Each structure stands twice: as C-alpha cells, then as structure tokens.
Amino acid sequence: MFKVQVKDLKFNIDKKEILKDVSFDVPKGSFVGVIGPNGSGKSTLLKNIYRLYKPTNGSIFLDNKDLSTMKDKDCAKEIAVLAQESNTHFDFTVEQIVKMGRYPYKSVFEDYSKEDLKMVKDMLKKVGLESYTERSFSQLSGGEKQRTLIARALVQNTDFLVLDEPTNHLDIGYQIQLMDLVKSLKITTLSAIHDMNLASMYCDYLIVMKSGQIINAGKVEEVITSEMLKEVFGVNAYVGINPINKKLQVSFMHTHEHINGVGHDHIHEDGFTGEHEHYHEHTQAAL
Ligand SMILES: Nc1ncnc2c1ncn2[C@@H]1O[C@H](COP(=O)(O)OP(=O)(O)OP(=O)(O)O)[C@@H](O)[C@H]1O
Q1: What pTM, to 2 d.p., does this model score?
Q2: Ligand 1 neighbour 85 (Cβ under 6 A)
Q3: Ligand 1 centroid distance, CA of 178 (Å)
Q4: What is the atom index within ligand 1 of the atom nearest the CA of 212?
Q5: Among 150, 224, 225, 251, which residue is least crowded by beta carbons within 10 Å?
Q6: 6-16: string of b/e by CB count within 10 Å (b at 16+)?
Q7: pLDDT < 70 positions in the chain
Q8: CA torsion through residues 219, 183, 106, 134, sign
Q9: Where on the tree of life does the source sit, at the highest rank (predicted)?
Q10: 13 C-beta closer than 6 A to ligand 1
Q11: Cβ 208 under 6 angstroms from ligand 1
Q12: Dihedral of the CA atoms 60, 62, 65, 68 (nearest 10)?
C-alpha cells in the first residue's frame, strides 16, 4: 500500500521547468531518501508535496486523497515538515516553537492541554533540549535550532514526515540520534539527504534526482553504486559493505587512487590509464 503517490508532477518557475514529469510512490511505513546534486530539484519536490508550492501539472495523492483538495488544517494533521530554511521564528522561545506543532489539533481559542504540554516536554527531552524551554529560538546555534524544529515536527504526531536535509548543522552524534529517533517512530518518511552513508544506514528506498528529473530509484543497494556516484555527482567512490551492520558504506577518493603503490605498472582504483602526475605522498610511499 502507498502512503504517497506522485504522478507526472511538473513545476515551473517563470516558465523555467524545475521539475519535469516526476512520478514515484512511497510505500506505507517506509523511509525514502531523495538524493541528487545541488540544484537538482529535491527541495522543490518536497515543497510541492508539503504544499508550499502548487504543482504546475500532475497530482499528488496522500492515502489516495488528492492533496490539492485537502484543507490546510487537515493537511497539518497528516504531514509534518522539517524544512531547510527557517527564518520566520523571530523571538519565540524553544517551548513556544515546539508547542506550535500541536496547533492543528486546537480550535480557535482553545489553550494547550496538559497532554499537549507533556508531549512537548517529552519531545524536548528526546532531542536533548529539556533545559532550553525558555531560551530564545533566535539565539540558538544552528544545531539547536534544527533539534527544536524536529521536536516541533514530531509533536504534530502525523503518519507522514517530510524532511529536507534533516541533519543540516548537526554534529555526527546528533545526526545519528535524530535519524534513530525518526526511524524508531516507524512513520512514512520522505527525506532529502546528502550524506550517502546516512542514506544507506536509514533509507529503505532511494530516489535519485538530476536536473529536475528522477533518473534512478530503488532499494539502497541497487541505487548506491560507484557508477551512480560518478555519473550523478562526478566523484570517484569505493562502495563496500560494513561488516558489522551489513549496510553499504561509501568512501570517497581523489580523482584517482592507486591500489598497489606508484610506478610504471601500478593499477588505479577507477581503471584510469592516462598520463598523470603523482601526488607527493604517493611518490613518497613508493620510495
Ligand atoms: N524561487 C525560485 N526561483 C527561481 N529558481 C528557483 C527557485 N527555487 C528553486 N529554484 C531553482 O530550481 C532548481 C532546483 O532547486 P532546489 O532547491 O529544489 O534544489 P535542491 O536539489 O534542493 O538543491 P540543494 O541540494 O542545493 O538544496 C535550482 O536550479 C534552483 O536555482
């Protein structure tokens, strides 16, 4: 069963095609990553899905309902978002920001209930910000802001989560903590993600975007290959298996690297055979 279905989505800005006939399905309960170079259309795709943008053409279905026909408040009970930029929070405290996640459940003059406040408190604890409740959001570090915003998205208590580069600004400890937290909720998640190793650890499926189109999609093991990394990002990479968690692991390399030292008969990891200078450290290693 699919949580989300995107059919022939096109999105133009000033007649420029930013998304071209994008179609894919997100299976219920899965964690789907969207990867691709800068400017390939990942954020624009997500913005169409969380309704910041209106598709120029095509449709998006959430639980078989056409998203364009849903009311904003109903949508907010169904989709929680951690967006990339967040410059609209002026002078709210951390607690006020996280409480906003409960807004879709409130009627006009209804105040936050004990349950709402407990949810907010518990979530702040989960993201390591329990002592930050009264701190001003605008004065937080990039990582603290990101953790506040994920807490807000999670108290919204939806079945579908859209994340736009959620680990932005986070140190590696908090990157893993955030991804573990999201994964433990087992809710359908669609996330733009730059880090291939995090993508491999957490995603069930990947969508690869290039120039506003999906050029590849499938299970992580099918999608993350050294060929794809070369074609899409123009980088050389070694893709192996982590012996402990059995997940794919990617190591990036210089333009070409040597397998067995340098000299006239050495081999290059990427099969390179042309004339070239050696890096100083390689020459040293061979002496
Ligand atoms: N409001 C806008 N006006 C004009 N062009 C835009 C606008 N928003 C996005 N674009 C263009 O659309 C393309 C896709 O941008 P988008 O932000 O979706 O890429 P992305 O894959 O998320 O990139 P990144 O990895 O850098 O976050 C880019 O060429 C960008 O310059």
Answers
A1: 0.87
A2: no
A3: 25
A4: 14
A5: 251
A6: beebbbeeeee
A7: 86-89, 255-267, 269-270, 276-287
A8: negative
A9: Bacteria
A10: yes
A11: no
A12: -50
Contacts of 199 (CB under 8 A, 6+ apart): 33, 35, 193, 206, 220, 224
Phi first, then psi, for residue 60 (nearest 5°) are -130, 130
Q: For 64-85, what is each residue's pLDDT tens digit?
A: 999 999 998 889 889 999 998 7
Look at residue 11 and tell me if it is in a domain. yes
Q: Quick check: is 256 in a domain?
A: no
Question: What is the three-class DSSP state of 152?
Answer: helix
Four-CA torsion 38, 201, 22, 75, nearest 10 degrees? -100
Question: 40 C-alpha to center of ligand 1: Å?
Answer: 7
- 118-125 LR contacts (CB < 8 Å, sep 24+): 119/155, 119/157, 120/95, 120/151, 120/155, 123/98, 123/151, 123/154, 123/155, 124/94, 124/95, 124/98, 124/151
Q: Is residue 209 part of a domain?
A: yes
43 Cα: distance to centroid of ligand 1 (angstroms): 7
How close is the Cα of 211 to the center of ligand 1, in Å?
A: 10
pLDDT digits (tens, 9 = 90+) for 24-61: 999 999 999 999 999 999 999 999 999 999 999 999 99
Looking at the DSSP bridge assignments, the partners of residue 6 are 24, 60
Indicate whether 247 belongs to any domain.
Answer: no
**CATH number reported for the structural domain that contains residue 197 in this entry:** 3.40.50.300
User: What's the confidence (pLDDT) of residue 263?
Assistant: 65
3-state secondary structure 192-256: ECCCHHHHHHHCCEEEEEECCEEEEEEEHHHHCCHHHHHHHHCCEEEEEECCCCCCEEEEEECCC
In the chain, the number of structural domains is: 1
* Nearest-angstrom CA–CA distance, 260 and 185: 46
